[in-house]
Amino acid sequence: MPDIKAIQTELRAVKIDGWLFYDHHHRDPIAGHILGLDGGAMATRRWFYFIPSRGEPRKMVHRIEQGALDSLAGRKQVYSSWEELHKGLGKLLSGSKKIAMQYSPENNIPYIGLVDAGTVELVRKLKKKVVTSADLVQKFEAAWTPEQLASHLDAGKIVDRITQAAFEWAAACVRESQPVTEFELQQWILERFRANGLTTAEPPIAAVQPNNGNPHYEPAARASRPIRAGDLLLLDIWANLERPGSVYYDITWTGYLGGRVPDAYAKIFRIVREARDRAIEFVGESVARGRAIHGWEVDRAARKTIRKAGYAKYFVHRTGHSIGQEVHGNGANMDGLETRDDRKIIPRTCFSIEPGIYLPEFGIRSEVNVYVGEHEARVTGAIQREILPLLA
Fold this sequence. Notes:
It is a single chain. By secondary structure, the protein is α+β, with helices and mostly antiparallel strands. The chain has two domains: 4-141, Creatine Amidinohydrolase, Chain A, domain 1 (3-Layer(aba) Sandwich), CATH 3.40.350.10; 143-389, Creatinase/methionine aminopeptidase superfamily (Creatine Amidinohydrolase, Alpha-Beta Complex), CATH 3.90.230. Helix content is 33%, strand content 20%. The protein is built from nine helices and 17 strands. The strands form four sheets. A six-stranded mixed sheet has the order 4-3-2-1-5-6. α6 (146-175) crosses α7. The longest helix is centred in the middle third of the chain and has 30 residues, at 146-175. The chain starts with a helix and ends with a strand. The mean pLDDT is 96.
């Protein structure tokens, strides 16, 4: 169940008259998460749920699916025809002028822009001002409870341990001339997840060059490179605990299947490491000083370092993403490239900082998770300082 009083308090604080939730065929998962609805329930007809800044919530459902919102508080209106829907929506929103919806101006933040343009037009036709719910979503969907932070830290300890063990296993296979592929290493990691009470919606990445030059490379059973001596091995690993409400931990480390890391790899890692550290420092100093910062600013702090080193065109990925019950959460992303994420970074949220340089020959990324508290920010797990020489 949503915390109606908390939502209304926040609406009054930001001077918004109400928050309108709308869905059809589960096109807006954010609405379902925040309202606590069953994601598998039938939703073949449009429904609306309006939380005003003051007073009782209101809901409108189709006669065929009258029970769609029965789990939620508020007075219910029922419609059948489109004429009834238009008339009923005016009644639903009566007394309000400024309405928040899952809408993003110019689709600047596509993760929030989930309501179709026609529905926004319909609300505007009723002489309502539609504003983005981006910051409301972040507060009520991306902010962690103390229990979620604990689940992240617990998962992190296990993931860190499995990551190091995966490097060791790959090195042992190479040392003993035992054939092993990227896909086989990925599956080995997944087995360790299951054995340690972890789960993931998507499998981790194990990549050697040139595949590690692709930020979203996916090893497959029939299209996977062997891991050999002299390879640069990148592991991007994310998982959460197998229990309700737990949140993800997501890291990327690199190792070299040899005794001495080649200068070409070490040079790129140093640039990536500096970009990562500059972004971490920017967040930490800003939070300590009480200075409001936005996701795009963190991206800029990292990107500036890589641009200065002459590799700007090879940094083709945002600096980081929100982390929640999905590995890509609904809070601010550290992004000034793919989008200009102007959401403020708020307390009790977590995100990755993962700059990378993706060359045609190879790619290097270094990823950590940063949790922002009320007055401080901190990296929640181990931090890689050098490429690991795996056959030293």
